[in-house]
Specification:
Layout (H helix, E strand, L loop, with lengths): L3 H23 L6 H25 L6 H26 L10 H22 L3
Length: 124
């Protein structure tokens, strides 16, 4: 079984905690409240999807292909969605925001793939 989803989940969750603390302490007073809210949204989505990756990491062995599809979708989604929001909160050019919906679609695809994998995992 590949360890990549579990390692990715742990890395994204640890980074989420650090980025959350950074936003709460280092960015307060340096960026406006709207940017802090964007930062908070990025952290929240990253943490939820790190947990989703953790679920993917414990999928049954027979769901190897599904595990890979879910993991890739969640990883791409976190990077594109949360990454673009982090960048926007820090003042990146507005065109970076065009990446956010692609990340959202990837996150949705990850959940759909996970749901399909769970349905398939119950079959005998």
């Amino acid at each position: 079984m590949s360890r990549a989803p579990g390692i990715s989940a742990a890395a994204f969750a640890a980074a989420g905690v650090m980025l959350g603390a950074f936003g709460a302490h280092a960015l307060r007073g340096r960026i406006d409240d709207a940017a802090l809210q964007i930062w908070h949204t990025a952290v929240e989505y990253q943490m939820w999807h790190a947990l989703a990756l953790l679920c993917v990491s414990v999928m049954p062995l027979r769901a190897t292909a599904a595990r890979g599809a879910c993991a890739i979708a969640f990883i791409c989604g976190i990077v594109l969605f949360s990454g673009s929001l982090f960048a926007l909160a820090l003042g990146a050019p507005r065109w970076i925001g065009m990446l956010t919906p692609f990340g959202g679609v990837a996150l949705i695809a990850g959940w759909v793939a996970l749901g399909i994998a769970c349905c398939g995992a119950t079959r005998t």
